[in-house]
Write a structure and sequence with these properties.
By secondary structure, this protein is an alpha/beta fold. The chain has 11 helices and 13 strands. The strands form 3 sheets. The protein has a 6-stranded mixed sheet with strand order 5-6-7-3-8-9, with helices on both faces. It has a 4-stranded antiparallel sheet with strand order 11-12-10-13. The protein is elongated, with a radius of gyration of 24 Å.
Amino acid sequence: MAMPTPQAPSLLLRGLHKTFAEVVAVNGLDLEVTPGECFGLLGPNGAGKTTTIEICEGLTTPDSGDVELLGLNWRTNAEELRQRIGLQLQETQLSEKLTVEETLRLFRSFFRRGITVEDSIKTAQLEEKRSARVGTLSGGQKQRLAMACALVGDPELLFLDEPTTGLDPQARRNLWDLLDRLKQEGRTIILTTHYMDEAERLCDRVAIMDHGRIIALDTPPRLIASVGGEHIVEFAATSHNKGANGAAAVDPALLTAIEGVESHRLTAGTHQLSVRELHTAVPKIFSVLASQGLHLDEFRTHSATLEDVFVALTGRNLRDE
Ligand SMILES: Nc1ncnc2c1ncn2[C@@H]1O[C@H](COP(=O)(O)OP(=O)(O)OP(=O)(O)O)[C@@H](O)[C@H]1O
Ligand SMILES: [Mg+2]
Protein backbone atom coordinates (compact mmCIF):
# COMPACT_ATOMS: atom_id res chain seq x y z
CA MET A 1 0.00 0.00 0.00
CA ALA A 2 1.31 3.43 -0.91
CA MET A 3 2.27 5.64 1.99
CA PRO A 4 0.54 9.01 1.98
CA THR A 5 3.02 11.54 0.60
CA PRO A 6 3.89 14.18 3.16
CA GLN A 7 2.71 17.64 2.11
CA ALA A 8 5.43 19.69 0.44
CA PRO A 9 6.58 22.75 2.37
CA SER A 10 4.85 25.93 1.22
CA LEU A 11 8.24 27.51 0.72
CA LEU A 12 11.71 26.05 0.55
CA LEU A 13 14.80 28.21 0.02
CA ARG A 14 18.28 26.72 -0.19
CA GLY A 15 21.54 28.65 -0.47
CA LEU A 16 19.95 31.75 -1.94
CA HIS A 17 22.29 34.55 -3.14
CA LYS A 18 21.56 37.81 -4.92
CA THR A 19 23.95 40.67 -5.63
CA PHE A 20 23.06 43.99 -7.29
CA ALA A 21 26.22 45.63 -8.65
CA GLU A 22 28.34 45.69 -5.47
CA VAL A 23 25.46 45.30 -3.04
CA VAL A 24 25.02 41.81 -1.62
CA ALA A 25 21.26 41.85 -0.98
CA VAL A 26 20.79 38.16 -0.09
CA ASN A 27 23.80 36.32 1.23
CA GLY A 28 23.15 32.61 1.63
CA LEU A 29 19.61 32.10 2.81
CA ASP A 30 17.94 28.84 3.81
CA LEU A 31 14.33 28.78 4.85
CA GLU A 32 11.42 26.38 5.12
CA VAL A 33 7.84 27.50 5.71
CA THR A 34 5.20 24.88 6.47
CA PRO A 35 1.64 24.91 5.13
CA GLY A 36 -0.75 27.01 7.21
CA GLU A 37 2.02 28.96 8.85
CA CYS A 38 2.13 32.74 9.16
CA PHE A 39 5.81 33.52 8.75
CA GLY A 40 7.42 36.93 9.28
CA LEU A 41 10.62 38.39 7.84
CA LEU A 42 11.84 41.11 10.14
CA GLY A 43 14.86 43.33 9.67
CA PRO A 44 16.12 46.88 9.21
CA ASN A 45 16.00 48.85 5.94
CA GLY A 46 18.15 47.17 3.33
CA ALA A 47 18.32 43.82 5.15
CA GLY A 48 17.19 42.02 1.99
CA LYS A 49 13.55 41.28 2.87
CA THR A 50 12.01 42.61 -0.35
CA THR A 51 14.70 41.00 -2.50
CA THR A 52 14.05 37.65 -0.79
CA ILE A 53 10.29 37.89 -1.14
CA GLU A 54 10.52 39.01 -4.79
CA ILE A 55 12.76 36.04 -5.56
CA CYS A 56 10.09 33.80 -4.00
CA GLU A 57 7.44 35.52 -6.09
CA GLY A 58 9.34 34.82 -9.30
CA LEU A 59 9.93 38.55 -9.95
CA THR A 60 13.68 38.53 -9.31
CA THR A 61 16.07 35.81 -10.44
CA PRO A 62 18.58 34.72 -7.80
CA ASP A 63 22.28 34.46 -8.70
CA SER A 64 22.30 31.01 -7.13
CA GLY A 65 20.22 28.81 -4.89
CA ASP A 66 16.97 26.86 -5.04
CA VAL A 67 13.44 28.15 -4.67
CA GLU A 68 10.48 25.82 -4.29
CA LEU A 69 6.91 26.87 -3.63
CA LEU A 70 4.15 24.33 -2.95
CA GLY A 71 6.57 21.69 -4.24
CA LEU A 72 6.87 23.55 -7.58
CA ASN A 73 9.45 25.89 -9.09
CA TRP A 74 9.43 28.96 -11.33
CA ARG A 75 11.45 27.34 -14.13
CA THR A 76 8.93 24.62 -14.97
CA ASN A 77 5.69 25.50 -13.13
CA ALA A 78 5.38 29.28 -13.50
CA GLU A 79 1.84 29.18 -14.91
CA GLU A 80 0.47 26.99 -12.10
CA LEU A 81 2.31 28.97 -9.42
CA ARG A 82 0.83 32.27 -10.62
CA GLN A 83 -2.62 30.75 -10.20
CA ARG A 84 -1.97 29.56 -6.65
CA ILE A 85 -0.15 32.45 -5.00
CA GLY A 86 -1.18 36.00 -4.16
CA LEU A 87 1.20 38.88 -3.75
CA GLN A 88 1.28 42.39 -2.44
CA LEU A 89 4.41 44.33 -3.32
CA GLN A 90 6.03 46.92 -1.05
CA GLU A 91 4.91 49.53 -3.58
CA THR A 92 2.20 48.64 -6.05
CA GLN A 93 1.79 50.67 -9.23
CA LEU A 94 -1.82 50.27 -10.28
CA SER A 95 -3.30 52.08 -13.25
CA GLU A 96 -4.43 55.48 -11.94
CA LYS A 97 -7.21 55.79 -14.51
CA LEU A 98 -9.07 52.61 -13.58
CA THR A 99 -11.66 52.56 -10.81
CA VAL A 100 -11.37 50.29 -7.79
CA GLU A 101 -13.95 47.93 -9.24
CA GLU A 102 -12.33 47.86 -12.71
CA THR A 103 -8.94 47.17 -11.15
CA LEU A 104 -10.28 44.20 -9.23
CA ARG A 105 -12.17 42.93 -12.29
CA LEU A 106 -8.89 43.05 -14.22
CA PHE A 107 -7.00 41.17 -11.51
CA ARG A 108 -9.81 38.64 -11.17
CA SER A 109 -9.54 37.93 -14.92
CA PHE A 110 -5.95 36.72 -14.46
CA PHE A 111 -7.13 33.78 -12.33
CA ARG A 112 -9.03 30.68 -13.39
CA ARG A 113 -10.74 30.57 -9.99
CA GLY A 114 -11.12 33.01 -7.14
CA ILE A 115 -13.53 35.07 -5.09
CA THR A 116 -16.01 37.58 -6.53
CA VAL A 117 -15.01 41.17 -7.15
CA GLU A 118 -17.79 42.12 -4.76
CA ASP A 119 -16.30 40.02 -1.95
CA SER A 120 -12.84 41.43 -2.55
CA ILE A 121 -14.21 45.00 -2.31
CA LYS A 122 -15.90 44.08 0.96
CA THR A 123 -12.77 42.40 2.32
CA ALA A 124 -10.72 45.54 1.70
CA GLN A 125 -13.53 47.75 3.07
CA LEU A 126 -13.57 49.81 -0.11
CA GLU A 127 -17.34 49.78 -0.72
CA GLU A 128 -17.54 53.58 -0.71
CA LYS A 129 -14.67 53.82 -3.16
CA ARG A 130 -15.75 51.21 -5.69
CA SER A 131 -16.28 53.84 -8.44
CA ALA A 132 -13.35 56.06 -7.49
CA ARG A 133 -10.35 56.16 -9.78
CA VAL A 134 -7.21 54.65 -8.27
CA GLY A 135 -5.40 57.99 -8.74
CA THR A 136 -7.76 59.64 -6.25
CA LEU A 137 -7.31 57.09 -3.43
CA SER A 138 -5.39 57.88 -0.26
CA GLY A 139 -2.19 55.96 0.48
CA GLY A 140 -3.94 53.65 2.94
CA GLN A 141 -6.82 53.01 0.54
CA LYS A 142 -4.34 52.13 -2.24
CA GLN A 143 -2.65 49.77 0.18
CA ARG A 144 -5.98 48.07 0.92
CA LEU A 145 -6.74 47.82 -2.79
CA ALA A 146 -3.37 46.15 -3.34
CA MET A 147 -4.34 43.66 -0.60
CA ALA A 148 -7.67 43.00 -2.35
CA CYS A 149 -5.77 42.37 -5.62
CA ALA A 150 -3.61 39.84 -3.78
CA LEU A 151 -6.68 38.00 -2.48
CA VAL A 152 -8.96 38.00 -5.52
CA GLY A 153 -7.45 34.76 -6.88
CA ASP A 154 -8.19 32.94 -3.58
CA PRO A 155 -4.50 32.08 -3.11
CA GLU A 156 -3.27 29.28 -0.87
CA LEU A 157 0.07 31.04 -0.41
CA LEU A 158 0.16 34.77 0.20
CA PHE A 159 3.19 37.09 0.10
CA LEU A 160 2.77 40.49 1.75
CA ASP A 161 5.61 43.01 1.75
CA GLU A 162 4.92 45.49 4.57
CA PRO A 163 1.15 45.15 4.36
CA THR A 164 0.36 47.67 7.09
CA THR A 165 2.92 50.40 6.44
CA GLY A 166 1.01 53.64 5.96
CA LEU A 167 -2.27 52.37 7.40
CA ASP A 168 -3.95 54.21 10.26
CA PRO A 169 -4.21 52.30 13.57
CA GLN A 170 -7.80 51.23 12.93
CA ALA A 171 -7.08 50.04 9.38
CA ARG A 172 -4.06 48.17 10.74
CA ARG A 173 -6.16 46.33 13.29
CA ASN A 174 -8.75 45.54 10.61
CA LEU A 175 -6.00 44.08 8.46
CA TRP A 176 -4.76 41.98 11.39
CA ASP A 177 -8.27 40.59 11.81
CA LEU A 178 -8.41 39.83 8.09
CA LEU A 179 -5.06 38.02 8.28
CA ASP A 180 -6.38 36.02 11.25
CA ARG A 181 -9.32 34.89 9.13
CA LEU A 182 -7.03 34.01 6.21
CA LYS A 183 -4.89 31.95 8.59
CA GLN A 184 -7.94 30.16 9.97
CA GLU A 185 -8.86 29.25 6.40
CA GLY A 186 -5.56 27.37 6.27
CA ARG A 187 -3.64 29.71 3.98
CA THR A 188 0.09 30.16 4.30
CA ILE A 189 1.15 33.77 4.78
CA ILE A 190 4.66 35.14 4.40
CA LEU A 191 5.00 38.78 5.34
CA THR A 192 7.62 41.41 6.04
CA THR A 193 7.17 44.12 8.60
CA HIS A 194 9.01 46.76 10.60
CA TYR A 195 6.44 46.56 13.36
CA MET A 196 7.49 44.34 16.25
CA ASP A 197 4.02 44.22 17.74
CA GLU A 198 2.66 43.13 14.39
CA ALA A 199 5.16 40.29 14.07
CA GLU A 200 4.49 39.20 17.66
CA ARG A 201 0.75 39.36 17.17
CA LEU A 202 0.50 37.64 13.77
CA CYS A 203 3.45 35.41 13.11
CA ASP A 204 3.83 31.79 14.19
CA ARG A 205 7.54 32.08 13.45
CA VAL A 206 9.80 34.98 12.65
CA ALA A 207 13.17 35.16 10.88
CA ILE A 208 15.27 38.17 11.80
CA MET A 209 17.32 39.29 8.80
CA ASP A 210 20.39 41.47 8.72
CA HIS A 211 22.78 42.07 5.81
CA GLY A 212 21.11 39.43 3.64
CA ARG A 213 21.26 36.66 6.21
CA ILE A 214 18.93 35.15 8.77
CA ILE A 215 20.49 35.80 12.17
CA ALA A 216 17.70 34.26 14.28
CA LEU A 217 14.61 32.19 13.56
CA ASP A 218 11.99 30.97 16.00
CA THR A 219 8.57 31.66 17.48
CA PRO A 220 8.27 35.20 18.89
CA PRO A 221 8.08 34.01 22.53
CA ARG A 222 11.17 31.83 22.15
CA LEU A 223 13.12 34.60 20.40
CA ILE A 224 12.19 36.98 23.20
CA ALA A 225 13.14 34.42 25.85
CA SER A 226 16.56 34.12 24.16
CA VAL A 227 17.39 37.66 25.35
CA GLY A 228 17.71 36.13 28.81
CA GLY A 229 15.22 38.18 30.81
CA GLU A 230 11.59 39.02 30.19
CA HIS A 231 12.09 42.66 31.15
CA ILE A 232 14.34 45.40 29.90
CA VAL A 233 15.47 48.14 32.27
CA GLU A 234 16.92 51.27 30.68
CA PHE A 235 18.50 54.12 32.55
CA ALA A 236 20.85 57.06 32.18
CA ALA A 237 22.83 58.32 35.16
CA THR A 238 25.12 61.24 35.95
CA SER A 239 27.63 61.58 38.72
CA HIS A 240 26.84 63.89 41.70
CA ASN A 241 30.46 64.62 42.34
CA LYS A 242 31.50 65.87 38.93
CA GLY A 243 28.12 67.20 37.91
CA ALA A 244 29.17 65.64 34.65
CA ASN A 245 27.08 66.01 31.57
CA GLY A 246 26.48 62.67 29.87
CA ALA A 247 26.88 59.10 30.95
CA ALA A 248 28.57 58.45 34.24
CA ALA A 249 30.81 55.45 34.50
CA VAL A 250 29.10 52.53 36.20
CA ASP A 251 31.06 49.36 36.56
CA PRO A 252 28.96 46.86 34.55
CA ALA A 253 30.22 44.07 36.81
CA LEU A 254 28.36 45.65 39.74
CA LEU A 255 25.15 45.58 37.72
CA THR A 256 25.47 42.09 36.31
CA ALA A 257 26.30 40.80 39.81
CA ILE A 258 22.73 41.69 40.87
CA GLU A 259 20.52 38.64 41.13
CA GLY A 260 18.07 38.55 38.21
CA VAL A 261 20.17 40.81 35.94
CA GLU A 262 21.10 38.75 32.89
CA SER A 263 23.06 41.19 30.76
CA HIS A 264 24.23 44.78 30.45
CA ARG A 265 24.77 46.97 27.42
CA LEU A 266 25.65 50.66 27.10
CA THR A 267 24.47 52.44 23.93
CA ALA A 268 24.63 56.20 23.42
CA GLY A 269 24.76 56.93 27.14
CA THR A 270 21.83 54.64 27.99
CA HIS A 271 22.37 51.54 30.08
CA GLN A 272 20.26 48.55 29.15
CA LEU A 273 19.81 45.58 31.42
CA SER A 274 17.82 42.45 30.69
CA VAL A 275 16.20 41.40 33.91
CA ARG A 276 14.26 38.37 35.16
CA GLU A 277 12.61 39.45 38.43
CA LEU A 278 11.82 43.12 38.05
CA HIS A 279 10.46 43.70 41.56
CA THR A 280 13.53 42.34 43.33
CA ALA A 281 16.17 43.53 40.87
CA VAL A 282 15.06 47.17 40.56
CA PRO A 283 15.61 48.14 44.25
CA LYS A 284 19.08 46.55 44.05
CA ILE A 285 19.88 48.48 40.87
CA PHE A 286 18.88 51.70 42.67
CA SER A 287 21.10 50.93 45.63
CA VAL A 288 24.11 50.11 43.43
CA LEU A 289 23.71 53.44 41.64
CA ALA A 290 23.32 55.32 44.95
CA SER A 291 26.40 53.62 46.39
CA GLN A 292 28.38 54.90 43.37
CA GLY A 293 27.17 58.46 43.97
CA LEU A 294 25.15 58.40 40.76
CA HIS A 295 22.01 60.34 40.02
CA LEU A 296 19.33 58.85 37.76
CA ASP A 297 18.27 61.09 34.88
CA GLU A 298 16.06 58.56 33.21
CA PHE A 299 14.62 55.22 34.21
CA ARG A 300 12.28 53.04 32.17
CA THR A 301 11.25 49.42 32.03
CA HIS A 302 9.39 47.45 29.38
CA SER A 303 8.65 43.84 28.56
CA ALA A 304 11.27 42.44 26.21
CA THR A 305 10.23 42.58 22.53
CA LEU A 306 11.58 41.38 19.20
CA GLU A 307 13.30 44.78 18.97
CA ASP A 308 15.36 43.83 22.04
CA VAL A 309 16.24 40.54 20.37
CA PHE A 310 17.63 42.44 17.40
CA VAL A 311 19.57 44.82 19.66
CA ALA A 312 20.97 41.89 21.63
CA LEU A 313 22.09 40.16 18.42
CA THR A 314 23.56 43.14 16.58
CA GLY A 315 24.09 45.96 19.08
CA ARG A 316 21.97 48.13 16.78
CA ASN A 317 18.34 49.21 16.71
CA LEU A 318 16.01 47.67 14.17
CA ARG A 319 14.36 50.93 13.31
CA ASP A 320 16.19 53.85 11.80
CA GLU A 321 16.72 56.46 14.50
N1 LIG B 1 17.20 46.65 -8.11
C1 LIG B 1 18.20 46.95 -7.29
N2 LIG B 1 19.34 47.52 -7.72
C2 LIG B 1 20.37 47.79 -6.87
N3 LIG B 1 20.34 47.55 -5.55
C3 LIG B 1 19.24 46.99 -5.06
C4 LIG B 1 18.09 46.66 -5.89
N4 LIG B 1 17.15 46.12 -5.09
C5 LIG B 1 17.65 46.11 -3.85
N5 LIG B 1 18.90 46.62 -3.82
C6 LIG B 1 19.77 46.75 -2.63
O1 LIG B 1 19.74 45.51 -1.94
C7 LIG B 1 19.70 45.71 -0.53
C8 LIG B 1 18.49 45.00 0.05
O2 LIG B 1 17.32 45.70 -0.38
P1 LIG B 1 15.84 45.20 -0.02
O3 LIG B 1 14.90 46.06 -0.76
O4 LIG B 1 15.77 43.74 -0.24
O5 LIG B 1 15.79 45.51 1.54
P2 LIG B 1 14.56 45.46 2.58
O6 LIG B 1 14.97 44.58 3.69
O7 LIG B 1 13.32 45.12 1.86
O8 LIG B 1 14.52 46.96 3.10
P3 LIG B 1 13.26 47.90 3.51
O9 LIG B 1 12.95 47.56 4.92
O10 LIG B 1 13.83 49.27 3.38
O11 LIG B 1 12.15 47.63 2.55
C9 LIG B 1 19.71 47.23 -0.32
O12 LIG B 1 21.02 47.63 -0.02
C10 LIG B 1 19.23 47.77 -1.65
O13 LIG B 1 19.77 49.03 -1.90
MG1 LIG C 1 11.55 46.11 1.56
